[in-house]
Amino acid sequence: MIGNHDRLIRRKAFSGGIPKAWIKEYSEVLNTPNWDFKPRTIIDGVQYIHGESGKAIKKAKDDMMSTVQGHRHTELGVEFAVGVNFRVFGLAVGCGIDHESYAMAYGKNFKKPAIGCGVVIDGKVGVAVPMQL
Description:
Elements: H1 4-15, H2 26-29, E1 40-43, E2 46-49, H3 56-63, E3 67-69, E4 76-82, E5 87-93, E6 116-121, E7 125-130
Parallel strand pairs: 2-3, 3-5
Antiparallel strand pairs: 1-2, 4-5, 6-7
């Protein structure tokens, strides 16, 4: 998934007037020629996104589609929204990064991140699995 930090370099390049021809694709920079970088993908009727702001359950309700989302480093969990004719879940998967790494130096005063993963069963149930710390 492409996230907000991935897009930052392109935004800065374009706002700085660097021609698009000088910008490399993610797969070229990361030497992953067969990878397909997307902002969103759908599997079994569940959308997977990095997220920008807001909680996963809000995105699920807005799109009327179960949603798995990262971005919010300190949130790990699942919520269901149930209506007369539908049920969706929002699954926040926290993050999988070492909060003491150089890449996370900008957030040194943030709360400690939620380290874990999400499991989706048959597109119907989301489960948040915290990592043992």
